[in-house]
Amino acid sequence: MLTVDNINLHYGAAQALRGVSIKAEMGKITCVLGRNGVGKSSLLRAVTGQHPISAGTISFEGEALNGLAPFNRARAGVGYVPQGREIFPLLTVKENLETGYAPLTRKDRYIPNEIFSLFPILQTMLGRRGGDLSGGQQQQLAIGRAMVTRPKILVLDEPTEGIQPSIIKDIGRAIRYLRDSTGMAILLVEQYLDFCRELADHVYIMDRGEIVHTGPAETLDTPEARRHLTV
After folding, report:
1. pLDDT at 2
2. CB 3.0-4.6 Å disulfide test: which of 27, 70, 96, 142 passes with 183?
3. How confident is the model at residue 137, as a pLDDT?
4. Number of domains observed in the structure of the chain
5. In the 8-state DSSP scheme, what is residue 122?
6. Residue 167 in contact with residue 198, Cβ under 8 Å?
7. What is the pTM of this model?
8. Angle, helices 165-182/135-148, rounded to nearest 10 degrees
9. What confidence score (pLDDT) does residue 97 get?
10. Which domain does 185 fall in, by range?
C-alpha cells in the first residue's frame, strides 16, 4: 500500500498541496480527479520524488519514501508514466523500453512478453524512432517503459490526454489487466470522468490543493462530487 499522509508541497512561496492524504492499495485502482490546476500532478510529483514535500510523510509497503531520489523510488517499485509521455523521440521503441532497465539487476534486464501482449503494435515497431509514433502509440510506449521496471505500483498522470478513443480503450484494458493479473497498486490521475468511473475501485477529488471528496467510484455521480468536477 502507498500511504500519503498529510503532505504539503510548495513551489517557492506558492503552496500547491495542503494536508493531502490518500491511500492506494495493492490490487486496486485509485483515481484522483479534479479540474486543471488543483494539484493533481503536484501530488504525483511528490509520490515519485520529482519535487520535495514540505510537510507530511509518504510511505510504500511500510517504508518511508521521504527524501528518496526518484531512481531509488523506482528501485523500491514505483513506476511512473508522466503527463505528456516524455518518451525519447530519437531513440527507437526498443531503446525506449530498454531505458527501463536502469533500476533492475542484470538478470531482470529484458522486456517482459506481457508488454507486447497488451500493446502488440509496439512489437511491430521496435526499430522505429519514438518520435515517429502517434500520440496514442507513444502513450502505450510510455506505459510499456514503466512496466519494464517491474513496478509494484504504477503511477499514471492523465494517460488519456490527447489520445484517440480506440487507444483509450486499449489503455483501459491494460490497466485493468495489470490490476487483476499482477495485483499491483495503480494510482491514476485523470480528468476523463467516464474512464475513471469504469476503472476505479476508489476515487479522490481535489480542489485548490486539498482532497474534497473520497469514496468508491459510484460516488462520482453524486451532486457533491459533480460540484467539484464541473467547470
Report:
1. 96
2. 27
3. 94
4. 1
5. H
6. no
7. 0.91
8. 10
9. 97
10. 2-229
Question: Where do we find the cell 467510484?
Answer: 217
* Alpha-carbon dihedral sign for residues 65, 216, 115, 81: negative
**The pLDDT of residue 203:** 96
Instruction: For the sheet with 210-216, list strands across it.
Output: 78-81, 153-157, 185-189, 29-33, 202-207, 210-216
List the 14-24 sheet strands across, edge first.
Answer: 14-24, 2-11, 55-60, 63-64
Low-confidence ranges of the chain (pLDDT < 70): 231
The pLDDT of residue 157: 94
If you ran DSSP here, which 8-state letter would residue 152 be given?
Answer: S
C-alpha cell at 216: 468508491
C-alpha cell at 128: 522505429
* 230 CB neighbour count, 10 Å cutoff: 7
d(CA 111, CA 172): 21
Whole-number Å distance between alpha carbons of 231 and 229: 7
Neighbours of 165 (CB within 10 A): 9
CB burial of residue 124 (10 Å; 0-12, 13-18, 19+): exposed
Q: 50, 47, 1, 51: which is closest to 25 by C-alpha?
A: 1
Q: Where are the beta strands (DSSP E) in 61-180?
A: 63-64, 78-81, 153-157
Element (H, E) at 31: strand 29-33
The per-residue pLDDT for 231 is 61
CATH for 9: 3.40.50.300
Give the model's pLDDT for residue 227.
Answer: 85
In which region does residue 209 sit, left (phi positive, over 0), alpha (psi from -120 to 50) or beta (all else)? left
Which residue, chain included where needed, has cell 531505458?
Answer: 99
